[in-house]
Design goal:
Elements (H helix, E strand, L loop, with lengths): L1 H64 L9 H38 L13 E2 L13 E5 L6 H10 L8 H7 L13 E5 L5
Antiparallel strand pairs: 1-2, 2-3
């Protein structure tokens, strides 16, 4: 019996010691659990700070890599501007050449045109049948040299009012001079004035 009671005593003591150890272990586990929780919260806060720092570094990197806007022109801008100036200069040169060619043509045309005669109040002598160049209409009439300010209407009136009293119309003058443009009378050009009354 002594032996049994000794065993009981050892068992009770071991149980009480184990219970005490379980309570201490539980206390240590709770303490460790709290510390782990604090560490996790601190780690989460540090993660947020790291994310904020990474964002700030990214923004700074973008600012550094973005070229600054300024009033100065880039090399490409200057190259494009130089090309445009060359194109404009080429067009100006082409226009100048064209103008010079047209002036040369006008000079040649002016050199071929007969010199203008002085204003006369009298009409040119009567043309003979051999002098006329028209196939239709009257074969007799007068040659007239166009003067500055002349119109076909004024020329016809001058012949009607002259001593010869040539009853000619503007339409008859146009018909007697094929290719004559009544709106473009050139000073110094001779035209034929038909005499409808002549036989």
């Amino acid at each position: 019996m002594k032996r049994i009671s000794l065993w009981l005593l050892i068992l009770v003591f071991t149980a009480s010691v184990a219970g005490a150890q379980d309570a201490a272990t539980q206390q240590q586990l709770d303490k460790l659990s709290g510390q782990i929780q604090d560490l996790l919260e601190a780690q989460a806060q540090n993660g947020k700070r790291i994310d904020a720092l990474e964002k700030e570094i990214g923004d700074l990197r973008d600012k550094v890599n973005t070229p600054q806007v300024s009033d100065s022109a880039s090399r490409d801008d200057l190259k494009k501007l130089a090309e445009q100036v060359q194109q404009i200069d080429q067009k100006r040169s082409d226009d100048r050449d064209l103008i010079l060619k047209e002036i040369e043509k006008l000079g040649k045309a002016a050199a071929l045109a007969p010199m203008p005669t002085s204003h006369r109040n009298s009409v040119t002598p009567k043309a003979t049948a051999d002098d006329t160049t028209t196939a239709a209409g009257p074969k007799s009439g007068y040659y007239y040299t166009i003067k500055d300010g002349d119109t076909l209407g004024l020329i016809a009136k001058a012949y009607r009012d002259s001593d010869q009293h040539v009853k000619v119309t503007k339409a008859q003058i146009i018909a007697a001079n094929p290719g004559l443009d009544p709106n473009k009378l050139y000073v110094g050009k001779k035209i034929f004035i038909p005499d409808p009354n002549a036989k």
